Amino acid sequence: MTQMDLTGQASLTDVANAAARIRGAVESVIEGKPEAIRLALTVLLAEGHLLIEDVPGVGKTMLSKALARSIDCTVRRIQFTPDLLPSDITGVSVFDQQRRDFEFKPGAVFANVVVGDEINRASPKTQSALLECMEERQVTVDGTTYELDLPFMVIATQNPIEMEGTYPLPEAQRDRFMARLAMGYPSAEAELEMLETHGSYSPLDDLEPVSDAREITKLIEVIRTVHVAADVKRYAINIVTATRDSADLRLGGSPRATLHLVRAARASAALDERDFVLPDDIAGLAVPVLAHRLLPTAETQISRRTTEQVITDVVGRVPVPRTDSRGRTPAG
Fold it and tell me: Where are the domains of the chain?
């Protein structure tokens, strides 16, 4: 039995063990993408939301479904289309003839894991229906607020905005996603393995849950206790501030971006069974946490520099605090 079984309290070992089980389950479906799977796990345990962006056919929806199925909790999938209405997501009040009163019919967002497929194919009005629930874990319909069950995570996929029939996500929507990852094309070996396994059946059919909502909630409580030294927090702030001052960007990172960066770093440290955050955790997550929130200047776009490249340059310029093996700075 684990420590959590005996005491009801989770430990860093429980976090690592649960993450290993979930990672193994997802890797049985997604071949050759360990970094993408780790980032997805990091976002889940950091109480964030994940945006998966890439061209069609590289496994965006498969990754989101595999992660959702590996946890025994409520899962709802939303296929975003141009005619999707906000009420389809949040729910609607319907008049009950027998009771002579309005009854609330919950929408697809009332689940622990919400998989939003091709989110940028819906109109901005429909996309905005997710704003409140992603930030506050609640939905307000007709003046009444309904709390969402915890844990709550939105995993959204989108195609690049150059693709036909897509709407770019508004800045406020992108800022609510903790991280963005790109799947990329698989290696030749992984693609060959995919042909062997996916050719006759879907591996998702055999994927059994290896965790549940209760365990994930307890693991999240552990991650909240991971220590972040003052100089490491300041390091995160300095990186985000540098994006606001960068001549290559017309929109830098928000305070929410700083908060998400530190939360993700806590989860990443816990996955390595550390109860403290290192500057390397912050630097390693800067690109996936910040890149999708930033807007490049026209000159940056003309020079074909991406926001990922800009952040890499920013991180290279910001001084790294000196810490010991326990993540402590010389002053503290």
Answer: 8-84+111-221, 226-317
Angle formed at CA 178 by CA 175 and CA 179, multiple of 5 degrees: 105
Tens digits of residue pLDDT in 139-166: 988 888 999 988 999 999 888 766 666 7
Residue 2 has pLDDT above 50, yes or no: no
- Which residues, at least 6 apart from 240, have a Cβ–Cβ distance to it below 8 Å? 252, 253, 254, 255, 257, 258, 261, 290
Tokens 């005619």 -> residue: 83
Fold for domain 8-84+111-221?
A: Rossmann fold (3.40.50)
Tokens for 193? 């393995």
Give me the CATH topology for the region 226-317: Helicase, Ruva Protein; domain 3 (1.10.8)
Average pLDDT over residues 215-231: 94
